[in-house]
Design brief:
- This protein is an alpha+beta fold.
- The protein contains six helices and twelve strands.
- The strands form three sheets. A seven-stranded mixed sheet has the order 1-4-5-6-7-8-9.
- The N terminus is likely disordered.
């Protein structure tokens, strides 16, 4: 096995394949958008080192499958013979001005397919869409914290942007982006992105159910049932499900068609609500497991 690894590395070095032009343009555009260094803030960038690392990583990523197509190439511990989805930390940003701080890790997805080019093309398109959305949300968060840096009298503010790969199996990929802002009060934003690796297509919650199934109302009713059950067991919990307690337009009745979700390791569908969607801010982003029989009845 060691000899095979050494051979693959030599092949990758001999090929000297450059990164795809699209990723070179993406790298240059993102680096150009990084905030300029001011005299007072202490900004810690690793852009130059990252650019070199990204070029090397992409060169190997391109060279290895082309050099030895039959090899089951492993990335992040996941064996891949088919659609490969690689998650890279494309932008790393730290700021510390004493009262205003920020820690940002922005992911970028890189996709390819060894045995189904049409699936690979679809996955690349999905990855580009996700990358654009993640970049937009990250830039909006950075603009928020940079604006605070120009204000006087800001006691404390912090921004955290991070990500996690929730699932990366032979057939499914899920990325979670987390954006937390804190300035007097804290807010949390979670966004889940899904790719069906058998087709390369992005998937939203509605794609899991048959048309006209009424899944948004049906799942919303199940969530309301679980909310009542949770509040009966724990008086410290609070959900907005009764008009006698909160204004009518605050009452949670059903989920959004594009509601955040993910699959737990045991395959259970879990719905993730937004902050303030159905509860006060201290409840964060509540999660609920949907029973298998309800999911099956809607498919």
């Amino acid at each position: 096995m060691d000899n095979l690894d050494e051979k693959l590395c030599r092949l990758a070095q001999q090929e000297q394949l450059p990164p795809p032009e699209s990723y070179d343009r993406m790298l240059r555009r993102t680096l150009a958008m990084l905030p300029q260094r001011r005299s007072r803030p202490r900004l810690l960038y690793s852009a130059r080192r990252f650019a070199a690392g990204l070029a090397a990583a992409l060169a190997v990523l391109v060279a290895l499958p082309n050099a030895v197509p039959a090899v089951a190439y492993a990335a992040d511990g996941v064996p891949v013979l088919g659609t490969l989805i690689q998650t890279l930390t494309f932008r790393s940003y730290q700021l510390d001005e004493g009262t205003v701080t920020a820690q940002v890790r922005e992911p970028k997805l890189v996709c390819s397919s060894a045995d189904a080019p049409e699936v690979g093309c679809a996955a690349e398109k999905s990855a580009m869409e996700i990358n654009a959305e993640v970049e937009r949300l990250t830039n909006e968060a950075l603009a928020w914290v940079q604006e605070l840096c120009t204000l006087n009298g800001v006691a404390y503010a912090n921004l955290s942007v991070d990500y996690a790969v929730i699932t990366n199996t032979d057939g499914w990929f899920t990325l979670r982006l987390s954006i937390c802002r804190s300035a007097g009060t804290g807010t949390q934003q979670l966004v889940y992105y899904h790719i069906d690796k058998t087709t390369g297509e992005r998937v939203e919650l509605g794609d899991l159910f048959r048309p006209g199934s009424g899944y948004a109302a049906a799942i919303g009713e199940e969530l309301r049932r679980q909310m009542r059950e949770q509040m009966a067991a724990d008086p410290g919990l609070c959900y907005w499900i009764d008009e006698e307690q909160v204004p009518a337009d605050w009452v949670f009745r059903q989920i959004r068609p594009d509601q955040n979700f993910y699959f737990a390791p045991d395959g259970t569908l879990r719905i993730v609500l937004d902050e303030y969607q159905a509860a006060p801010g201290y409840m964060g982003c509540p999660e609920f497991a949907i029973p298998e029989e309800i999911v099956a009845s809607l498919q």
